[in-house]
């Protein structure tokens, strides 16, 4: 058996070395959009979002296909399904998610996850004024901008090392901007989890081979409306660079049939300097922390902090700068295989005047079939 004292440094070293390995691609990085496919980093599941998106070492149900597919081997039910709906920016952006997972045998499991993030009913007013110079509201049409992702997961226990699980995702991405443009993308994720004496460790490598989106532009939709200063977009390829998340968690029993689960994740991006607690041209690190208190495995209270950003006092509405986290709270109920989880998350950015709210409410429903 491999000892915990050896596995922990190995996982940390693997995460850092994988992240630093991308520093040799500076020229590619300069040409890469920093937030490419960022809809895949919003998060899924009321439990996870209530804990500040800390799940890489903890995921143990169908949501593991998103957070860390190695966790599919930890689910307690034979079949597990999860549905989620959330609305961001005062309901403008809809975030929907569905997942299903099941074991193949005592050493392997599979899962499938579907994600949609979109803005619907966007008005196209280009034809609002008719040929006589009159406004005609019946000429307004509507379209949607939406991003879709299908994740197919496979996980397997490694017999040579007790408590070690390896897994991978193959993902298909489709992005659509009404009738103006669409893109297809493909990528691969890899993950592992290790358990030893109550400690839970996880490492997730997203877009490990880089993910490519091939954009197809309908140039005919832009002809006649682009100004002389604008150029009509052309077909192009968008690249998403790897992202690595290292997580550790531990559960302890408290008096009164109460359990406490504490976890920390370190999310490392390789697409240039970001507004994170640790930031450099080579790698940026965003630490996250989460806590879950459970009573008799029936009722759960959760909290977490993530997305720590430095706010410029000159650009802040209250005139105060400094580091500000994105806090989150959540509650959950589990009974007879049914799980209802709710989360409330507040963005770290400033609220713009009195227009709308930076709070987001997330609701997810899960069920484990025996």
UniProtKB/TrEMBL annotation:
Q: At the top level of its lineage, which domain of life is listed?
A: Bacteria
Q: Hey, what's the signal peptide range on this chain?
A: 1-26
UniProt keyword list = Signal
Q: Which NCBIfam families match?
A: PorV_fam
User: What is this protein's name?
Assistant: PorV/PorQ family protein
